[in-house]
């Protein structure tokens, strides 16, 4: 920007005299020469020809019926900068959509394997379906779980083609109103029993301040796990849920192969014992048979343990009783508190979208304004250059 | 005088009647060519007429706004022609031809025309805006895109140069 140049008293006096002369007013005596110059300059002003004056008068009175320049081009060129904010808005919406969709994808992944808070966990009404879907999605690279009916009925044609053995686990946290805490923990026991599961261990603590917390270590038959989880989810407001899969096929196959080998070895030893003739041979074979029998027992136990892991899913359940009012619990019902929570969530998402939009729009608008200013300045400079000597 | 926010058809007509001759004189002085001055003057009025709704009284007077439009059109014309406008040779000399003019007056105005021709295009434009266009210093500043004091300083310098040129021996 050009610095301001304050007018000197002499300049102010002369400029005032010029204005007075142009207005037809008298000036001071010592400025009469300037007054004369002003009048002479004014008198040299070129005048319109009568023909042009008449044409212009006609154009003005008719409202310029014949445009001298294409109006559309002028309009577009003059408002082209408006496209920048529009493009910025479009980009903001696209990015916001991508972010929102990506956010949704993360939630799905959370349910698949990782443990993370899931405030927007599936409502109880759809909980079972969601749990089933989650279970199916939880083993994308794995064939049907070994505990499924189809898998268990599949014929065993050999070690390498045996159905896969998978141990499933789940973790679920429920929130319930303080006054329903005891009833909820009782309902957990009943639900586990209803699905043929067992409570391996539990720890229940009640407090007037915190409202109480209970943790359960459950074993649920794998083939009933999804339905059991859905039923448990209905007992309170699900605040956290995760599931996991552990493929134990390798361990199972290895143990079974070693068991087969040990049994074959025992049969061989028994046949050798039948053919033995000396006391020393007999003693040696008996000792080997005892050793093999011990290995067989150990392998049988290991196999049984692996079968139990495949047949029973481990479920960690936490129940928290809170005094936060109806919003804290819900017991699977969509309450006004839930509605308020959902409304807040929607507002949060909208605020996020707006924030992202602004994060894109504001720099874009600033950039557009800078470009527009630069173009304007450049155009002015080019125009002004017409006054420079060639 | 109350200035309307936008230039309505009625006030545009008033603006035209108040400014047409001064605007033409300014453009003619800047371009130094009758035909081009007529085209640019008509174009300036047409643009002003079509954009009259966009006039904002808070940003200056209607007259300053109109002269700004005319200046842009004239400078575009100058750029297009890529040559500075000769001033004195093309200036009409109606008054000099008037028989009733005194000899002294004729000599003085011829001297002024010759002095104007010695000015730089920028100074010449300032003189034309002020003395032919009849703009106030505030309008001058708005048209030139500068401060009022800066416009006044530049105008004073241009007038000083003109006085020197007039007093210089032939």
Can I get a quick summary?
Chain A is α+β, with helices and mostly antiparallel strands. Chain A contains twelve helices and five strands. The relative contact order of chain A is 0.12.
Structure, explained:
The complex is a heterodimer of chains A (390) and B (170). Chain A has helices at 9-22, 32-43, 50-62, 71-78, 83-112, 127-137, 149-153, 181-194, 225-233, 249-275, 279-311, 336-385; strands at 166-177, 198-205, 213-221, 237-247, 312-322. Chain A has 390 residues and is of the alpha+beta class. Among the domains of chain A are: 1-44, no CATH class; 102-143 and 158-255 and 306-350, no CATH class. Chain A starts with 8 loop residues before the first helix and ends in a 5-residue tail after the last helix. Chain B is mainly α and 170 residues long. Chain B has a single domain, classed as Arc Repressor Mutant, subunit A, CATH 1.10.10.10. Chain B has eight helices and no strands. Chain B is globular. Chain B starts with 8 loop residues before the first helix and ends with a helix.
What are its keywords?
heterodimer, A: 390 residues, five-stranded mixed sheet, B: 170 residues, Arc Repressor Mutant, subunit A, globular, disordered N terminus
Distance between the termini of chain B: 46 Å
- Give the class of chain B from helix and strand content and strand pairing: mainly alpha
Q: CATH superfamily of chain B, please?
A: Winged helix-like DNA-binding domain superfamily/Winged helix DNA-binding domain
| Strands of chain B, total number | 0
The H-and-E topology of chain B, N to C, reads as: HHHHHHHH
Question: What oligomeric assembly is this protein in?
Answer: heterodimer
> What share of the residues of chain A lie within helices?
55-70%
Report the uncertain regions of chain B.
1-5, 84-90
> Order of SSEs of chain A, N→C?
HHHHHHHEHEEHEHHEH
Q: Number of DSSP strands of chain A?
A: 5
Count of discrete alpha- or pi-helical segments spanning 4 or more residues of chain A: 12
- The helix content of chain B is over 70%
Largest interface: A-B, 50 and 63 residues
Tell me the fraction of residues in β-strands of chain A, as a range: 5-15%
Structural class, from helix and strand content of chain A? alpha+beta
Task: Give the overall shape of chain B.
Answer: globular
Q: How big a fraction of the residues of chain B is strand?
A: under 5%
* CA-based gyration radius of chain B: 17 Å
Average pLDDT number of chain B: 82
Shape, per Cα inertia axes of chain A: elongated
